[in-house]
Specification:
134 residues; 8-stranded mixed sheet; globular; binds cobalt (II) ion
Length: 134
């Protein structure tokens, strides 16, 4: 079921400071900030040869990453995203094995315009895990 690592998401308080580190210190190619009001975040993508890093900065009231940043004021790894061929089949298989799907359990359209789901961190080694259908 599990496919490629699509991205590692890092939550930060300040996108421009975070992207400057990756651009200047690491020489990475980074995109312009992309506000995603429906997800409560602004996103910058760092494209690497084998995967992506996504920086997430809170956007608006009640951002889903606000609490995380209260606990991790310097920022930190927020979630991992794995690719799957069929997100509904993957979800149903995981639910059968007792994994908890967050939200209403139905895929939403994620940052790349593809269906995504989030799985409870307690069921996946303490790590919020996203599945993206590619
Ligand atoms: Co993600």
């Amino acid at each position: 079921m599990i496919g490629r690592l699509n991205h590692v998401a890092i939550a930060v308080k300040n996108l421009s400071a975070a992207t400057a580190v990756y651009k200047n210190a690491l020489g990475a190619v980074v995109t312009d900030p992309l506000p995603q009001p429906e997800h409560g975040v602004t996103v910058v993508f760092v494209n690497l040869p084998n995967t992506k890093i996504e920086f997430l900065e809170p956007l608006g009231e009640g951002s889903p990453i606000a609490k995380f940043l209260e606990k991790n004021p310097d920022g930190g790894i927020h979630h991992l995203c794995y690719e799957v061929d069929d997100i509904i089949a993957a979800r149903d298989q995981l639910k059968e094995q007792g994994a908890r799907v967050l939200g209403d359990g139905n895929p939403k359209i994620g940052a790349h315009g593809k269906p995504v789901l989030f799985l409870h961190p307690k069921d996946f080694c303490g790590t919020l895990t996203e599945l993206e259908q590619v």
